[in-house]
Amino acid sequence: MKKYTILMSSIMAAAMMVSCNDDEPQPNPVDPNLPAWVQEETLAGGELGTTFNQSASAYEDPTPATERAGMATAFKYGEFFFEHTITQDNPPFNGLGPVYVRSSCETCHPGYGHGRRMDRYRADDWANGYLLVVYNAQTGAYEPSVAGMPQTKAVEPFKAPIDENQITINWLPYTDEWGNKFEDGESYDLIYPEVNIPQSAFYAPLVNDYGQLAFRLETTIGIYGTGLIDAIPDDSLKAQYQREYEAGANLNPAIWNGADWTPVSGYYGGTSSNPTGSGHPRRFTYALSRGPLQDAPGSNAIWNITNVNRSNKRSHYLSLTPSIYADASAADPDVQARFYDFFPQWNKTGDPATDIRNYLLCDTLPVEMSDQDYINFMIWHRGLAVPAARNLADADVQRGRQLFREMGCATCHRPSWETGDDNFTDPTHFFSDGDSRLPRYPHQKIWPYSDFVQHRLYMVNDIRTGWCRTTPLWGRGLAPLCSGHGDRLHDARARNVIEAIMWHGAPQSDARWTVEKFRKLSKADRDAVVKFINAI
Asked: Distance (Å, rounded) from C-alpha 231 to C-alpha 328?
């Protein structure tokens, strides 16, 4: 207890020092003499969500809404949980057991941004944002003997569900139907990853026949601005689906049935005021697996990436069918021989196999992350600002902006949205609807450049199911400065904007028609499009 008190005092003192001037947001530096549309679009996150920081820390700032609500210190405290390495017995930064994906959130999100392209899979490699995807190639369903985000790390005496030393990543060249050349003869390169995990790398018995399995990589995306995305009204997302459906767009039938959310796949967690409610449209992750931010990537990642328990998640994150890993561990002589050395308090029956299984499947584990720590973490998560757009008055940027719209890129990369009342919900019921303990963003015009709908690009070794949410483009031009790289797309196969665009050009791709127009542009116009994308 004394150690905890001293540590908390030191952290809070540091946070107070860092945030002593944060309660007064910086004035809007946008030149009032610029055209009205430039002034408006420069505020990528609206008045309440934009930071004008353009340095290497641009992704890390609190929103003006967070500061105005007097939450700057709590924001900094929550930030510690994102940046700090999690260990087993170091409150308040304890967790990891018995298996985990990473020991730090920032390891996956370098500089708070997109994970970078890697040549090998090692959880401890800085900026390795890769999550493994292990699934049945015929059905698309995940392999139940490992987690949805498979772990490659374990604490003693347990063993990792997948031995990462046996995982290989090979980057292969790809030549498209145009010979990787634009019409004017300029060339570009394309590469894609091939991942292999031998059967010997799996610890627990497989449910699927090994020959049916496929392996893919999905890398993390930037986490700034997620609170603003959460503030987009459900009805606005529904209207976007309806517009695209009526325009003849291909939509994932697992998400949209042509008139409403598909019941089996719409986000049906209810709300604190309506526990059996009709659900929420999914808006987060490539797979559109999550709805409201309060039960979305960050909220879940602090639990299922670093395996930190809290009051509303008091079980371990194991395999998709948790009993599979539990049974394998309980029957493992090595684990049996050493279990009580590490977990003497779990000597309940005297039978190691029984006690190991009961420990792994327990859903009333001691809380590792306090409620207040979790609140601060979510203040930070919901309070991350979006960098302002840059140089929109530049002639080349304006030319690129025009072409971006003329070619049809804005069809999927919808430029702007309006937030609603932002009476957000929490399907886990930890937070009440529109909880005053978290920052809010009512009635803001924001510029994420995404429709938050899934489309298909038909890339070689494509994402599982082939359906991928349109990634927001805001702030991505700062990635080389903030995250140390400019890699793009779901598995970081694109090393620059040109490669990302050309990966949209497969014959069956939903974006094929826009790429056909892009490749016919002059080099000056192509460069203008790239300059615009990097400016927003």
From this structure: 43
Q: 444, 533 in Cβ contact below 8 A?
A: no
Give, as one character, the DSSP assignment of residue 229.
Answer: H
Closest CA to 477 of 467, 466, 485: 485
Q: Strands 468-469 and 454-455: what pairing? A: antiparallel
Phi-psi region of 452 (alpha: psi -120 to 50; beta: other; left: phi over 0): left
User: To which H or E segment does residue 216 belong?
Assistant: strand 213-219
231 assigned to some structural domain = yes
Specify if 153 maps to a domain: no
Instruction: Give the chain's residues under pLDDT 50.
Output: 1-23, 268-277
Q: What is the pLDDT of residues 158-196, one digit of tens each?
A: 999 999 999 999 999 999 999 999 999 999 999 999 999
Is 355 inside a domain boundary?
A: no
Domain that holds residue 248: 2-85+224-302+371-535
Q: Which residue has the tokens 């939450």?
A: 71
The total of structural domains in the chain comes to 1
- Contacts from 333-338 at CB under 8 Å and sequence distance 24+? 334/157, 334/159, 335/157, 335/158, 335/159, 337/157, 338/156, 338/157
- Tell me the per-residue pLDDT of 290-349, one tens digit each, with 9 for 90 and over: 889 998 888 999 999 999 999 999 999 999 999 999 999 999 999 999 999 999 999 999
Contact 515, 502 (CB under 8 A): yes
CA dist., res. 488 & res. 17, Å (int): 36
φ, ψ for residue 133, nearest 5 deg: -125, 115
Confirm whether 483 is domain-assigned.
yes
Residue 88: exposure state from Cβ atoms within 10 A (0-12, 13-18, ≥19) = middle
Residue 115 Cα distances to 36, 180, 211, 312, 466, angstroms: 35, 26, 29, 29, 20
Averaged pLDDT score across all residues of the chain: 91
- Whole-angstrom distance, CA of residue 509 vs CA of residue 505: 6
Is the Cβ–Cβ distance between 28 and 44 less than 8 Å? no
Please state whether the peptide bond connecting residue 92 to the residue before it is cis, i.e. omega within 30 degrees of 0: yes
How crowded is residue 421: how many other Cβ atoms within 10 Å of its Cβ? 12
3-state secondary structure of 525: helix
Percent of the chain with pLDDT over 70: 92
Name the β-bridge partners of 87: 94
Check residue 439 and report its DSSP letter. -
